[in-house]
Write a structure and sequence with these properties.
Blueprint (H helix, E strand, L loop, with lengths): L6 H10 L3 H17 L15 E3 L2 E3 L3 E3 L10 H6 L4 E7 L12 E4 L4 E4 L8 H10 L5 E6 L10 H12 L5 E5 L14 H22 L5 E5 L5 H13 L4 E4 L20 E4 L3 H15 L5 E4 L5 H9 L4 E4 L1 H6 L2 H9 L1
Parallel strand pairs: 3-4, 3-13, 4-7, 7-8, 8-9, 9-10, 10-12, 12-13
Antiparallel strand pairs: 1-2, 5-6, 6-11
The chain binds flavin mononucleotide (FMN).
Length: 341
């Protein structure tokens, strides 16, 4: 019996009795303590090997940890030990920032959902880099990059460039976060002309960095689920035209249709978990259709079981990621999915 089988009967009731952000901080503290123990193993060799290749990288299996859970890369080895083939750290910004006012994270327990409006609270890119350098985990590590709250949207590209230059040498892929609904105007970067300008500049920089470090680090664009067909088609068009290496579908939604009238439904922020599963899968399927399989896709949103993981793979994802599912189902979900997909 794994210690993680105690999550649902014992640990979750305790964590759910706490404020969600306190529960998150406590989890990170526990993870940091565990990974500092002398006999701790950062890699998990007990799970079935389901190797897949994506963006020129070799993944031990298709399942990864989604961005936002370990924003500062403080518990890389712990999360790696759960069996994930890859961890997406961040979103990180050039300078440390405290994010939005608290409370800013809410559980929608009756729907297995979360609402957050964290606002890119993070300790800054240099802190993350120091943790990347220290890691023992040998799986794939992606870094999600964004802009500081105080940087005008017109100058956003400068922030992405700073982050990209600092993390490039130390990670395996970089995710461009233009879809978080909790940073003012960020999602406007998904508009055609702004997206084109951003992507062409980042691709140019990627070329330079690849020469400097003799290493090609793929770029992935993460999109929102709140996009109509025209916007989606145009984004796919710009992503392909700029030779971006992959797309992540999706971030959290501002829609409340699925949880209308439930506790905390009126809190503003991004909704995640089971309530966005269908919506995210539909976006994934459309993106798969528009991009005609020319680039790999990462399916995210409501992965909380073997079936929901298979659903993303069936809709065209090469890789899948989860966040809210871990909060509701606990660490055993990782091995369950990997062993049964
Ligand atoms: C508390 C919280 C913080 C998040 N922070 C980020 C973030 O910093 N960057 C990002 O790209 N996505 C962030 N996300 C979105 C997740 O990476 C993921 O796209 C979304 O939650 C849908 O997956 P899920 O249903 O498995 O949670 C965050 C999600 C939550 C719940």
């Amino acid at each position: 019996m794994s210690i993680y089988s105690l999550y649902k009967p014992l640990v979750r009731p305790f964590l759910f009795s706490l404020d969600p952000e306190k529960a998150h901080s406590l989890t990170i503290s526990y993870a940091k303590f565990m990974q500092s123990c002398p006999l701790f193993k950062a890699d998990n060799h007990k799970l079935l090997h389901k190797e897949c290749e994506c963006m020129g990288l070799k993944f031990a299996n298709p399942l990864g940890l989604a961005a936002g859970l370990d924003k500062n890369g403080e518990a890389i080895d712990f999360f790696g030990s759960l069996g994930f083939s890859h961890l997406e750290l961040g979103t990180v910004t050039p300078k440390a920032q405290s994010g939005n006012l608290k409370p800013r994270m809410f559980r929608v327990v009756s729907a297995n959902g979360l609402i957050n409006r964290m606002g890119f609270n993070n300790k800054g890119v240099d802190f993350l880099v120091s943790n990347l350098i220290r890691r023992k985990y040998s799986g794939i590590v992606g870094v999600s990059i964004g802009k500081n709250e105080t940087t005008a949207i017109e100058n956003a590209v400068d922030d992405y460039l700073v982050c990209m230059q600092k993390v490039y040498e130390h990670c395996d892929y970089i995710a461009i976060n233009i879809s978080c609904p909790n940073t003012k105007d960020l999602t406007s970067l998904q508009e055609t002309s702004k997206l084109d300008a951003l992507l062409s500049r980042l691709k140019q920089e990627q070329g330079k960095l690849a020469t400097t470090y003799r290493k090609y680090v793929p770029l992935v664009v993460k999109i929102a689920p709140d996009l109509d067909d025209n916007a989606l088609e145009s984004i796919c068009d710009r992503v392909l035209a700029n030779h971006v290496d992959g797309m992540s579908c999706t971030n959290t939604t501002t829609s409340r249709d699925v949880i209308y009238g439930m506790e905390h439904a009126s809190e503003w922020g991004g909704l995640s978990g089971e309530p966005i599963r269908v919506m995210s899968s539909n976006i994934l399927a459309k993106v798969h259709n528009y991009t005609k399989g020319q680039i790999p896709l990462i399916g995210i949103g409501g992965v909380n079981s073997v079936m929901s993981a298979k659903e993303k793979l069936d809709k065209g994802a090469t890789l899948i990621q989860l966040y809210s599912g871990l909060v509701y189902e606990g660490p055993e979900l990782v091995s369950k999915i990997i062993n049964h997909i």
